[in-house]
Structures are given as structure tokens and as C-alpha cells.
UniProtKB/TrEMBL annotation:
Gene3D superfamilies associated with the record: 1.20.1270.10, 3.30.30.30, 3.30.420.40, Actin, Chain A, domain 4 (3.90.640.10)
GO BP annotation list: endoplasmic reticulum unfolded protein response
Keyword Signal: yes
Protein name according to UniProt: Hypoxia up-regulated 1
SUPFAM superfamilies in the cross-refs: Actin-like ATPase domain, Heat shock protein 70kD (HSP70), C-terminal subdomain
N-terminal signal peptide: 1-19
Length: 912
């Protein structure tokens, strides 16, 4: 039982992807998405404007929430409700006062970083504020909507929800930052399958289509390939040293084809808080100072709309200067109706930021030092991030590497990380056939407790470590993590930050249930694959180490030996091993974890934020439904206006509607147009739908007349064919039943023949249906013929009724045709003879090929016993019917005439 539990736990611990998964590379300025789903191309998800990069911003235009490019453009009109660059504020309590934030964040009384929301929408409170985590949750909702639109674009009946994500984060992110991202995902009901480093995502994308040297992990022979992933984004620059290699292992000793596993091992990381936004801020200051010097308007520094315009122009100029030496500047009505025009050169910008150039090369040196490798071991430096396109940054990289020889631009500088994360998600899934991957990530800063290193920088994320303590009634342990910024200035004396406190209580009480010698408190800590530190368990155990074989050795011995005696012995040893864990060997302890430093969201804060998010989502859903109802009503009115026009090309409404009906519809249509012009902006969804329903109720009878006029001739013809075929079947089956009964009465006892294929009750059902249909159609056809020339009259016979009756009759006949022939009864025992008499019956019991009565023969005049007179002449040599055969009427024969009906006039009821 214990072995079964162990294997089950191992199986459950592996992340398995069964549904659609969204990969998110959330950047400070841009976000990239990729969807992993069978049937969906492996590519990035486009936003509403068909852009491959989505602006990482959320804003409000009065009551409307906006994202992406629309949210970015709204900053010039609504700067107070524009919230960009949320990523660096996650898990932080230090407000940034940079000009990149139109409304800088503040610290709330309970120590939480918040953004005020001036003049909030009516569906929110009067004093609405947003935390960075809540603002990220807003954007995640938009990302999920884009992915669900793509996942449902394949024509599925229902919209497939996205509930699983794989996200990329900076490898140097601290515990509070990772926790804040996880909280934002939870607020939107998203499950984080994996949280990998951004450099790891690029490395995965790099490894997708490449092979690497083979390395043997057991004896250390072979080679590894080392690369540096250099990622310079909007707010930070990171360098990650990664080792690539492959291993080959036979799945079983008898296997001939080894399993090749690609290993991606992250060895070291370095970073600096500098990126493309620093260039933007420098340009903004240069443009603002130039405008003030030319116009003398010093108050422009405090005008948020003017600053938003300068920010947008500075970003545009930065991209131009990346490819050109100079750029023109033009901002219309920048401040106080004054236009601003100027010109700036790349040299001017580089001169203003020259002192910061070394910061762009520092992460490479720091990462190599952390990984313990030299530049000579590096095969290439893979450039990633939009900021690596800036010549100023490329110059810093060349200075650090001593040239261009190792600079590689062989991945997509914008999308490699998200595509690598999506590739990792596909590798976790069982729905795709992928090459085997093993990714190893490590903590950037070591984690210590009481001066003892618990997880070093060489530890792997996902590892567990056991700590032993002398039993005391109350134990409290604090864990610290070294500062993750591995710049050269901080390696010698890294900053340590308290991250977790664990309090174990009631130890003495637990000792009363412990019987083994030398008790110790065993605390197992876990650094999960997402980088979160937590307690796995706490127990009292014995400090005495025995040499009893472990579980793996017992299993290996159990299944490895061949002789029966050894097998029996090993079974006993395994049984002894499983029974050695007694109640006194381990006693579980109660413990409490307390997060130190930046506090996570409390339960009350999560409930409050979810309430706000739900209010926004409900408002937007209602608005979307109202706008859809309005568009449908407006489109319906314009269509109806065209149909009612005297010069309309489609004359159906004029032919099938009376003059009174057209006048009534026209009057209501004009009233609806007037009402829509006055109340469209304030009307709710239900009112708009009722307005449309009132018009549709007037049009519905006219539509019915038109559809019935078009469909009725074909429906009558199909009904005739079904009646004709069923009547022919009934006549032939009735005759064969009579012949079968006659054969039974004359057959010798040692040569019994089968009973009739159909019972009298079965044939009676067909006969009753024929009579009921004839009576029904005869009564209605008289009335239908009288109004046949007037298209404004409601139809008497509906095509649906004809189809329903014809199908029921046809299905009844087909069930009888497909019925298996009856088996003959067992022959009675008679005196055995040495000779056999061959008996050839003169008629069939219940079988023949179906022969239809000609269409021009009135079947109502054919009597059952005279059916031969109405059938075509038989050939000269009529084949003898074998015993046991019945009516063989194929479905194709029944539908032959119905498939290609001959053109004919609508018959009168007498002809039916």
C-alpha cells in the first residue's frame, strides 16, 4: 500500500497540461502572448489592433476601461487614469516618483502601495484605489479574453475558457514580487503551471530547433555548450549564463533506441535596473527643457497632458534615432496652444547618457562571475529585448565582449521568451509530441537561517532541505535571502532580506508520543519551481542513522533477481521495511509560517479587489450586450426600411403582405427610428430587444407565407413519394405473408419453413398510418387549393407537417425492411433413410425483390389480391424463391424517386 501511495504521489506531482494553456511574457512596456492548443498555430496572440506586441497599460476613458494601444493613446486626454509600467512596482512598498507615472503611487496607512483613481466610474466607489497587483489583474483579464477569442475561432460550439498559464519573470525577482504576480493570477482564477525566468524562456526558444553536444552525467565525460542570454528591456537589463547539453539513456536494458534529453541549465544571472525607459526619460527632459527655453512656459512642467504628449514624442524619437543620426520633433499645441518643433541628433542623446553606458555591460560580467565561467567558455551572447536594437546599448555590449565575434542575433528579439514558454508548456502536455526537455533553474541569492546556508546559489528550484533542531517547547526560525542584484558593487557584501519566519509550538507535548531514542525536530523546507520558499513539513524524528535498505534498494532487489528463493526472500524484506515505520518513529508538529518584509495580500484585501474586478467585468458585459442589442435593432430597422420601399428590388414583402400589414409595419418602424435617436444612449438591453421583437412579431406571418410558398411544392412531392413507397411495401408484404402461411400449412414436418417475416400487428401499423395520412391530406388540400393563388393568405398545409408525417411513415417502413428474416422451427425427428428427397417449393414464403407499382397507376384502385395486374410483366423464367426469404425492399429503392422527383403540378386532393 505504501509503494502504491508513493507512485501515486510521484505521478500527481508532475504538471500535466490537458487543456489550452496561455504563455505570458509580461514586460514593463510590452506584453507578448502565445496560446498552446491543438489545432491553433504555434504563434503569438494578436491584440484588438492586430499588433503582435501589446502595450502593458490599463486606463479609463470616463467609465470605459481601455487596454493596449487604445490605452496608450488615451494618456494624452485622460492622464490621471492612465496606469503604465506596473511591473517594477509589483511586490514593492517604495513608491517611484519618475515622470513615467502621470499619477505617482502612494503608501496607504496599512503600508500598501496604491494608485488613486480620480473621478472613478459610477459602478465603483467614490474613493477607488488600485494596487499594482490589481492593475496587473485588469490586464490579465484582457490577455485571457484575447486568448479565448483565438481558441474559439476554430468554429467550436462554445467558448473555451483559459484557466492555465505559464509566465516568465525576471530570474532575480524576490519572493514578494513573485508572490504579487501569483496573487494577480489568482484574482482572475488562473492557475500558474510554471513560472520560469525570462532568460530561460529565450534559452528554450533557442533550443527548439538545435542539437547540442552529448554529456554523460555519471562520469562527467563529454561537453557542454555555454551561452549568455542578454535581455535589455524597458526597465531592466539582465544577463543569464545557460549551459546546453544532451544526454542519451536507454529506457530499458533491452531497448535499442535511446531517449535523447535536451538539458537547459541556468548557471548564473546578473542584472541592473536600467533599460529603454531611461532613454525615454532623458529625451523627455531634453525636449521639455528645450520647449521651456524657447517658449518661456515654465508651468508646462506641471501640466500632465503636456507631459504625456512629450512622453509619446520622446518614445517615437528614440526609435527613429536607433536607425538614423537625426530626427525631427513636432508636437502640435503642446501647451497653451503653442506648437513645438525642433531637431535632435543621436550624438546629443548619447552625450546626455554617456555616464550610464557601463551599466549596460555590468550584467554580463556579473553573470559570468556568478556562474563560475569565463568569457572564453562562452560560445555566443544571444541578444533579446527591444533595447538591444539601440546602437548605444550595442556599443556597451561590444565593449564588454571585446568585439562582435560572439554577438548573436539568432532569436526573435521581441517574441523569443514567450515562444520558449509556450514550447515549455507544450512539452508539459500529453497532447503534443515534443523532444524531451529538462530545465534547471537556481536561486539568484542564497537563502540562510541563523547563519546556516539552507539553499545555496547552486541549489535547484524544486529542491527540499531538512534542518535539525534540538527539541524545545517553542522554536522560531527566520530565513533570509541575499540580495539578488549581482552587480559588481554588491557581490562582496550582498544585502540580506528577511523573507519568512517559522514558529513551531507544542514540541514538548508531541514528545510524549515519541518513543525512539535521541529525538530531534526535523524541519523540511521547500524551494518550489516557482521560487517560493515554504515549509514542507515539521516532525519529531530520531537522530540515529541505521543501515537498513531504502525503498529504492528494496524494490530493486525485489524485481531484479531471477530465482524463486531470492524473490520470496525479497518479498519478506520489503514487508519488513514497510512495517518498520511505527507510530513512535515520527510525530507531526504544528507550525505557523509568517511572511516577513513586504506583506502579501490578506484575505480581506483579495475579497475587496475581486469585488472591484467583478463590478468592472459586469459593467462591461452589460455594456457589450446593450451595444449588440442596439446594433441589431438599428440594422433591422434599416433592412426593413429597404424592404418596405416601393422601389425595393426584393418584392417579397409586397407580394406576401397585405396593404394594412405594410402600413402597420411602416408606422411602427418610423416610431422606432425616432425613439432610437432620442433614447439609444440610455436605453437598456431589454428595452432594445423588446423594440425589435415588436417589429419581428409583425413580420413573422409574412415570412411564414413566403417560406411556405417556396417549400410547399417540394414537401408535397416528398410526401407523395413516401406514401407511394409505403403503400407498395404494404401490398407486397401482405401478399408474401399470405404465401408464407400457405407454405407453412403444406410443408412436411421434416422440412419446416420460416414463419412470416412480419406480424399482422406490424403491417396493421403501416396500414393505419396510410389511412390517417390520406384522411389528413384530403381534408386540408381542399382548403389549400382555394387559396393557392393568393399569396397574402396564411397557408393551410405546412411543409413541416408534411415532412414530419412523411419521415415517420418512412422510418416505420425502413425498420420493417431492415428486420431480420424469421428462422424456421426445428425439424421433427422422422425415420431416417439413406436417400434424400429434394423438394422445390412452388412459391415463396415471404421474400421477393421489391417491385413498385407504376406512378401512373392509381394505387387506391389496386386491390391486394390483384396487385400482379398492376405490376410490370415478369420475365419468362421466373426464379423460384428460396425458403426463408422475405420481402427485400432496399432503402435506395424507396428513395429512388424521392431523390430526383419528376416535375409535376400540385395535385388536387382527389388525386392523392
Amino acid at each position: 500500500m505504501r509503494i502504491r501511495r508513493i507512485w501515486t504521489a510521484l505521478a500527481l506531482s508532475l504538471p500535466v497540461v490537458r487543456a489550452a494553456v496561455l504563455a505570458i511574457d509580461y514586460g514593463a512596456e510590452f506584453t507578448k502572448l502565445s496560446l498552446v492548443k491543438p489545432g491553433v498555430p504555434f504563434d503569438v496572440v494578436l491584440d484588438r489592433d492586430s499588433k503582435r506586441k501589446i502595450q502593458s497599460v490599463v486606463g479609463w476613458k470616463r467609465d470605459d476601461r481601455v487596454f493596449g494601444q487604445e490605452g496608450k493613446m488615451a494618456a494624452t486626454r485622460f492622464p490621471d487614469t492612465h496606469f503604465p509600467y506596473i511591473k517594477p512596482l509589483l511586490g514593492s512598498t517604495s513608491p517611484r516618483l519618475d515622470t513615467i507615472y502621470p499619477t505617482p503611487p502612494t503608501i496607504s496607512p496599512d503600508g500598501v502601495l496604491i494608485f488613486p483613481h480620480p473621478s472613478p466610474p459610477s459602478h465603483l466607489g467614490d474613493e477607488t484605489t488600485w494596487t499594482p497587483t490589481a492593475l496587473l489583474a485588469h490586464q490579465l483579464a484582457y490577455f485571457r479574453t484575447l486568448a479565448e477569442d483565438l481558441a474559439s475561432s476554430g468554429g467550436g460550439k462554445s467558448r473555451e475558457p483559459i484557466t492555465q498559464v505559464i509566465v516568465t519573470v525576471p530570474a532575480w525577482w524576490t519572493q514578494p514580487q513573485r508572490r504579487a504576480y501569483r496573487d494577480a493570477l489568482e484574482l482572475q482564477g488562473l492557475t500558474c503551471l510554471a513560472m520560469i525566468g525570462e532568460g530561460t524562456g529565450v534559452a528554450l526558444n533557442y533550443a527548439m530547433t538545435r542539437s547540442f553536444p552529448t554529456f554523460d552525467l555519471e562520469d562527467g565525460t563529454g561537453q557542454k555548450e555555454y551561452h549568455v542570454v542578454y535581455d535589455s528591456g524597458a526597465m531592466s537589463t539582465t544577463a543569464t549564463v545557460v549551459a546546453f547539453y544532451q544526454t542519451e539513456k536507454l529506457p530499458t536494458p533491452k531497448s535499442k533506441t535511446p531517449i535523447v534529453t535536451t538539458h537547459i541549465d541556468v548557471l548564473g544571472t546578473g542584472w541592473e535596473e536600467i533599460g529603454g525607459v531611461m532613454l525615454d526619460i532623458t529625451l523627455q527632459k531634453m525636449l521639455l527643457n528645450d520647449f521651456i527655453s524657447k517658449s518661456g512656459k515654465k508651468d508646462a512642467r506641471d501640466d500632465k497632458k503636456a507631459l504625456a504628449k512629450i512622453s509619446r514624442e520622446a518614445n517615437r524619437v528614440k526609435h527613429i534615432l536607433s536607425a538614423n543620426q537625426e530626427s525631427n520633433i513636432a508636437i502640435e499645441s503642446l501647451y497653451d496652444d503653442i506648437d513645438y518643433k525642433s531637431r535632435i541628433s543621436r550624438a546629443d542623446l548619447e552625450s546626455a547618457i554617456s555616464e550610464s553606458q557601463s551599466l549596460f555591460s555590468t550584467p554580463i560580467i556579473s553573470a559570468l562571475s556568478s556562474a563560475g565561467v569565463t568569457l572564453d567558455n562562452i560560445s555566443s551572447v544571444i541578444l533579446f529585448g527591444g533595447n538591444t536594437r539601440v546602437p548605444f546599448v550595442q556599443s556597451a555590449i561590444r565593449n564588454a565582449l571585446g568585439g562582435d565575434e560572439k554577438v548573436a542575433q539568432n532569436v526573435n528579439a521581441d517574441e523569443a521568451a514567450v515562444l520558449g514558454a509556450a514550447y515549455y508548456g507544450a512539452a508539459l502536455s500529453r497532447q503534443f509530441k515534443m523532444k524531451t526537455l529538462e530545465v534547471v533553474e537556481r536561486p539568484v541569492g542564497e537563502i540562510t537561517s541563523g547563519g546556516q546556508v539552507v539553499f545555496s546559489k547552486s541549489s535547484r528550484l524544486g529542491e527540499r532541505k531538512s534542518l535539525l533542531y534540538t527539541p524545545q517547547d517553542d522554536l522560531t526560525m527566520e530565513f533570509e535571502q541575499a540580495g539578488s542584484n549581482l552587480s559588481l558593487s554588491k557581490i562582496a557584501d550582498p544585502h540580506r532580506e528577511a523573507i519568512l519566519s517559522v514558529h513551531i509550538h507544542d514540541v514538548q507535548k508531541a514528545l510524549t508520543n515519541f518513543t525512539a531514542p535521541q529525538p530531534v525536530v526535523n524541519l523540511t523546507m521547500r524551494l518550489d519551481p516557482r521560487g517560493h520558499l515554504s515549509v514542507a513539513n515539521a516532525v519529531i524524528s530520531s537522530n540515529i542513522t541505521t543501515k537498513e535498505p531504502g525503498m529504492a534498494e528494496a524494490l530493486k532487489g525485489l524485481f531484479g533477481k531471477k530465482d524463486k528463493d531470492s524473490d520470496a526472500t525479497n518479498v519478506e524484506e520489503l514487508s519488513d521495511l514497510l512495517s518498520t515505520t511505527t507510530k513512535g518513529d515520527k510525530v507531526a508538529l504544528r507550525f505557523k509560517e509568517t511572511v516577513l518584509g513586504v506583506k502579501p495580500m490578506t484575505g480581506e484585501q483579495k475579497r475587496s479587489t475581486m469585488s472591484q474586478l467583478s463590478a468592472v467585468a459586469s459593467f462591461e458585459a452589460a455594456k457589450t450586450a446593450r451595444e449588440e442589442a442596439r446594433n441589431l435593432l438599428e440594422g433591422y430597422l434599416y433592412r426593413l426600411s429597404g424592404l418596405l420601399d416601393d422601389d425595393a428590388e426584393n418584392r417579397a414583402l409586397h407580394e406576401f403582405a397585405t396593404k394594412e400589414e405594410r402600413e402597420k409595419m411602416g408606422k411602427l418602424m418610423r416610431e422606432s427610428f425616432e425613439w432610437l435617436g432620442e433614447h439609444a444612449e440610455r436605453a437598456d438591453e431589454m428595452t432594445l430587444k423588446l423594440k425589435r421583437a415588436a417589429l419581428e412579431s409583425l413580420e413573422a406571418p409574412i415570412i411564414l407565407r413566403y417560406k411556405e410558398h417556396t417549400a410547399r411544392p417540394r414537401a408535397i412531392d416528398d410526401f407523395q413519394q413516401a406514401m407511394f413507397s409505403a403503400r407498395a411495401f404494404f401490398v407486397e408484404a401482405h401478399k408474401n405473408n399470405s404465401l408464407a402461411l400457405e407454405s407453412i400449412s403444406t410443408a412436411p414436418s421434416d422440412k419446416p419453413v420460416p414463419p412470416p417475416r412480419y406480424t399482422e400487428e406490424e403491417l396493421k401499423v403501416v396500414e393505419d398510418m396510410l389511412k390517417d395520412n390520406e384522411k389528413w391530406i384530403d381534408g386540408l388540400m381542399v382548403k389549400q387549393v382555394k387559396i393557392e393563388g393568393d399569396k397574402t393568405k396564411d397557408p393551410v398545409i405546412l411543409s413541416k407537417d408534411l415532412d414530419d408525417r412523411g419521415k415517420r411513415l418512412q422510418n416505420t417502413v425502413l425498420r420493417l425492411i431492415n428486420k431480420k428474416p424469421s428462422k424456421p422451427p426445428k425439424a421433427k425427428n422422422t425415420t431416417s433413410t439413406t436417400s434424400t428427397t429434394s423438394v422445390t417449393p412452388t412459391s415463396s414464403d415471404n421474400s421477393s425483390s421489391a417491385t413498385f407499382i407504376p406512378k401512373d397507376t392509381p394505387t387506391s384502385q389496386v386491390e391486394p389480391d390483384k396487385v400482379e395486374d398492376a405490376l410490370p410483366a415478369e420475365p419468362e423464367e421466373t426464379p423460384v424463391l428460396l425458403e426463408g426469404e422475405g420481402v427485400k425492399l432496399e432503402e435506395e429503392d424507396l428513395m429512388e424517386d424521392a431523390a430526383e422527383p419528376e416535375p409535376q403540378e400540385v395535385p388536387r386532393h382527389e388525386e392523392l
